[in-house]
Amino acid sequence: MLTVSTGNNAVAAAVRQANPAVVAAYPITPQTEIVEQIANYVTNGSLKSKYIPVESEHSAMAACIGASITGVRTFTATSSHGLLYMHEMVNWAAGARLPIVMANVNRALGPGWNVWAEHTDALQARDTGWLQVYVSTVQEAYDATLMAFRIAEDRRVYLPVMINLDGFALSHISQQLEESPAGDFIPPLVLDHAIQTDAPAGYGCMTSSADYFRIRYDIERSMRDSVQVIKETEEAFAQTFGRKYSWTEEYRCEDADVLILAMGTLGKEAEVAVDILRNEGVKAGSMRVRWIRPFPELNLGNRELVVIDRNYSFGFGGILATSIRAKTGKECYNVIAGLGGQEVTYHDIAGFVRDRRIGEEFWFGVDA
Amino acid sequence: MYEIRLHSRGGQGGVTAAKLIALASFRDGKYATAAPFYGAERRGAPIISFIRIDDKPIKVYSQIHNPDLIVVLDPSILDLVNVFEGLKPDGKVLINAPDIPKKAEGYQVQHVDLTGIALKTNLVVAGSPILNTPVIGALAKMGLFSRESAAAAIKEMFSDERNLKAALMAYEELV
Amino acid sequence: MSGTSASEYIWKCTSACAGCSSSLILRHVLKAAGPDTVLVVPACCTSVLQGVWPNTSFNIPVYNVAFAAAAAVASGMAAAFESMGKNTNVIAYAGDGGTVDIGIQALSGALERGTNFLYICYDNEAYGNTGMQRSGSTPLGARTTTTPGGKTHVKKDLDRIIAAHHLPYMATACSAYPQDLVKKVEKALSIKGPKFMHILAPCPPGWRYDASQTIEVGKMAVKTGIWAMYEREYDSLTLSGPTKAAMIKPAPLEDYLKMQGRFSSITEDTIRVIRGEIERNLRHLKAEAEGTC
Question: Would you call A56 and C68 a contact, using CB atoms and an 8 Å cutoff?
């Protein structure tokens, strides 16, 4: 069914398709419409989930953990400070090997209070064992949410998945949406380690130094296995629904000399900058990075890299740029732009490419 | 790509108007995005929505600086904000007013009394006249999308018939 | 208003909605507190209505903090002022969401430790700042964006939770009775130790009534008895005048409910339950005031 929807409503619509048994909900700008729309679905009967209006985000993730370990599908959504407040439980969810799906609407961190788009919130959770994908259109928000349940719940994975959408820039804008019914795209959840009263076991008990590291290694092994699961799921999605997704979204990269790498809506707007640059004779291409965990093999070749980071790791650098350097050894021109919803247009992005100085970091709006 | 900046006050339905424009364009077979611009938004404060319409997918998310069309749902905003800022040289203006306000003179202005139409059709909620559906009728008359698509969009979002009635009145009364 | 300071600490350029009870309350709280005051404000409507950097519309220091942390931050600040020998008022000023839900752990801890501060919860009975989602303080039957069919759980009894901490002073008040509010704040600030005030703050966009009615709605809450005003000093309860009157001749509950769009779909059964709760609460308060319980 083809309609117009906001990013937040698209996530809620996909959650309705996935039909989780339990949804824990706590409001925070700019995620609120997700939990409100789900409340509407539950009230009007089109979604049969148990809706728990918890009293904080820490409790939201805790409630999802409690529900998930019984073997049922769960969902929650948050943003920024909410994600930070639940950080302990975010770690717990991955460590407990629970296929929880969460939408995070990327928003800057205070002080000062700023409700607009920035990726630092989710990126601070990049070490937790959660899979993370970043979307750039309303359709992609819907599709990624459907796929997230299937990926998380795959036996080879059993790890939680976070779908990231830019606060206001995507969460609140209306674009077209094909609300594809999930059909049997998401198989029923079978959680091998679910609590069973007829097969009692202790969960998350004291673990000695002689054993703990093996549990952590298991998480990493599943994270590596998730690479294949993500690939299979995206291929199956393309076959079933006709929309293709991959680790990145490449635009005019084949014969490019210089690549623009970014996440979220900036990664999409970069395509407009590419067209402008191409008209000037600059062979630019855009490579929008979708998956951050597991960190993908990037098809960088010998091209120069302009990496736009809508985030920052103090005392270190832009997180996407430094991740690329760590993984591939490649230097780039690291532009720090879009923090706290700072406006970045396709003109600005084209300017970053024209003015690039490989190996340098450039704070847009601060540096000359 | 056609770019529209819509000025209203919080609580007047400007955000919904933007969505309706996107939906009507969409029913016309075009691509459209509608983006409310949230500052410290509260009831009564001036707010802006950005709408883009194109024949191909729209990849721009940043603000509209040079609109082709400016829509003003509440003429009192003209005293607070320079709504015409960045308007393209051949750009147009649509104002909710029975006459062209002084501040709008010199621009290519069309106007219609949306408030009057809302009151006439009793399209009033909690004491406030609804402007977001009537304005769609005026925009259809301006050629943004077909009348049929405008009607389809309104019927999709609102079941109350007064919305369509008011929109058709605005279509007829646009000056 | 007689007996109130003429000084203003909130200037006219806030971003408050028309008819905002919270800014009205805060205006009077600050008049009572005076300039030697620091406000600790977690995420809530007050965070927003101060204004946007580099401006602020409040003429006292305001420390904005994360949602769950108000009482804990205030606790640290109070200890620091004490270590410096300063008498600066530390007032935590939070909404119901940040008090009853996410903030209750920090609040209980600060009270239990005997922190020398005043915690004020202004209660608009929902998460106002994010668009009126339900909080633990939302009353039974009220529509919010996350209880579109009306809340099915009763309003959390914050005041009895606070009373269980046996504070030297706690009080309830209402934005519609500013003189009473000012007296209570002055009294609280004259006492050393942990103090708490719970102030009803009717909210026009959230409760769905015309902004011009904001005082009438507040008065009706007290007159029906659904909001009781009193003070507790340790375990000794004193009822406030308007509540004594409401106990003798309460206004019909329906008169309060029908003023507000958020109760437009409330059922007779729910009204009956609420009325029963009001009667029970007033009965207990009366017995407590008379020392017979």
Answer: yes
CA distance linking residue C202 with residue C220, whole number of Å: 11
Residue C54 sits at the chain A interface (C-beta within 8 Å): no
Average pLDDT, stretch A263-272? Answer: 98
- Compute the distance between CA of residue A334 and CA of residue B25 in angstroms, rounded to an integer: 38
Average pLDDT of the segment spanning A146-167: 98
- Over residues A174-233, the pLDDT tens digits come to 999 999 999 999 999 999 999 988 888 889 989 999 999 999 999 999 999 999 999 999
- What is each CA distance from A190 to A159, A186, A231, in whole angstroms? 13, 12, 21
Asked whether the domain spanning A248-363 has the same topology as the one spanning A2-241, the reply is yes
Domain A2-241 class? alpha beta
Question: Distance from CA of residue A176 to its chain's centroid?
Answer: 20
User: What integer is the mean pLDDT of B4-23?
Assistant: 90
Q: Tell me the DSSP string of A148-183.
A: HHHHHHSTTT---EEEEEETTTTTT-EEEEE----T
Give the model confidence (pLDDT) of C154-165 as tens digits: 999 999 999 999
What is the interface pTM, i.e. ipTM, of the complex? Answer: 0.92
Chains in contact with A, where contact means 3 or more Cβ–Cβ distances below 8 Å, are B, C
Cβ within 8 Å, pair B40-C210: no
Asked if C148 lies within 8 A of A40 by C-beta distance, the reply is yes
CATH number at residue C241: 3.40.50.970
**Within-domain flag for C7:** no
pLDDT, tens digit, 9 for 90 and up, residues C218-247 = 999 999 999 999 999 998 999 999 999 999
Partners of residue C132 in chain B, C-beta under 8 Å: none
Q: Are B47 and B36 in contact (CB under 8 A)?
A: yes
Give the nearest chain B residue to C52 (CA atoms): B40
Cβ contacts below 8 Å, chain B against chain C, sum to 22
Q: Which of C1, C20, C35, C9 is nearest to C183 (CA)?
A: C1
Query: Does residue C93 sit within a domain?
Result: yes
CATH number of A248-363: 3.40.50.920
In this structure, are residues C65 and C41 in contact, taking their beta carbons and an 8 Å threshold?
yes
The lowest-confidence range among A138-147, B75-84, C114-123, C136-145 is: B75-84
pLDDT band at C40 (very low <50, low <70, confident <90, very high): very high
Best of C14, C15, C22 to mutate (most B CBs within 10 Å, chain B): C15
Confidence of residue B154 (pLDDT cuts 50, 70, 90): very high
**Which among C18, C51, C208 has the least Cβ separation from residue B44?**
C18
Q: Is C137 exposed, middle or buried (0-12, 13-18, 19+ CB in 10 A)?
A: buried
pLDDT tens digits for range A314-325: 999 999 999 999
> Chain B closest CA to C17's CA: distance in Å?
6
Picking from A43, A55, A113, the nearest residue to C102 by CB comes out as A55
Contact C15 B42 (CB under 8 A): yes
Q: Which residues of B touch A272 (CB under 8 A)?
A: 59-60
Residue C8 lies in a domain: no
